[in-house]
Amino acid sequence: MRTKLSGFLSVWAFFLTTDCVSGTFPKAQNVTWHSLNFKTLLTWSPKPVNYSYTVEFSKQGQNSERLPSCIRTDETECDLTSGLTDLKSRYSTDVVSEPVRGGTSDLIEYPYTTSPVFTPYQDTVIGKPEFKIRVSDDQRKITLYITDVPTAIFNEKKQRLTIRDIFKGDLQYKILYRKAKSTGKKEMFSVGSEIELTDLEKGKSYCFNVQAYILSRSPGKQLGELSNVQCSPEEATSIFEEYSLTVIALAILAIIVIIAVVIAVIVLCWRRQQKQRAPRKGSDCI
């Protein structure tokens, strides 16, 4: 991005004066993009000592730009959100090592490190969506209402844009769902933010996760962050709905057998007592 100048670089190692620094500065390392919902930061290391950093960014093939907050700074991050206005363009940056504010140097060209290429539309991570669940009165349908994730981008009227405003028809949602007491998951995709599910068992509780899905992205970047899990309430069921008739019949039979055994033991004990000749207090059976 920066034009590399050939020529002799005067280097006087470790020699410092009040106004002019001779020698070179350490290059930035680990230059990395971090972007969530189009809030985009560039970070690097190390922390500067007796020098500063300036970040220059540009669309590919165009002149470099600078943001005032990232000129001769002693920080190791730069918020480039406001500068990356063309979300579908490819951007690269140079992190330039320079003298501190007010200082000078006899270097013809300052050392710099170039970042990887970054395209906001393709590379920003989409955060966790929020959604609400509504169960129909007949318990046969569940509707999910997804809130489109807000972004760090504003329009000309200073209104915050959502991912739906930016991606439009390129945005879908992936829904993962399962019975609350099961581990087997099903999935479906929806182009809208209101999703109806009707292939569910009446009255059962179902658990859901939602994540954004961007059609035009490369496979490894299509899915956003997975939402927190939410479950629908379970309808109260009668014993006849909860268990089969066979199970209920066996339970009743078991109760009858237990009662019969208890009665038989009591009768047997009473007869034994009647046969005893000598009167005794208490009972032989407990």
Structural commentary:
There is one protein chain. This protein starts with 19 loop residues before the first strand and ends in an 11-residue tail after the last helix. It is an alpha+beta fold and 286 residues long. It has a four-stranded antiparallel sheet with strand order 14-13-16-17. A three-stranded antiparallel sheet has the order 2-3-5, with no helix packed on it. The chain has helices at 120-123, 163-167, 239-242, 245-275, and strands at residues 20-21, 29-36, 39-45, 52-59, 77-79, 91-98, 104-105, 112-114, 130-135, 142-147, 150-154, 160-162, 171-179, 186-190, 194-197, 206-214, 230-231.
Order of SSEs? EEEEEEEEHEEEEHEEEEEHH
Q: Sheet bearing the most strands, described?
A: 4 strands, antiparallel
Strand percentage lies at: 25-35%
Mean pLDDT: 85
List the helices and strands and how they pair.
Elements lengths: L19 E2 L7 E8 L2 E7 L6 E8 L17 E3 L11 E8 L5 E2 L6 E3 L5 H4 L6 E6 L6 E6 L2 E5 L5 E3 H5 L3 E9 L6 E5 L3 E4 L8 E9 L15 E2 L7 H4 L2 H31 L11
Parallel strand pairs: 1-7
Antiparallel strand pairs: 2-3, 3-5, 4-6, 6-8, 9-10, 10-15, 11-12, 13-14, 13-16, 16-17
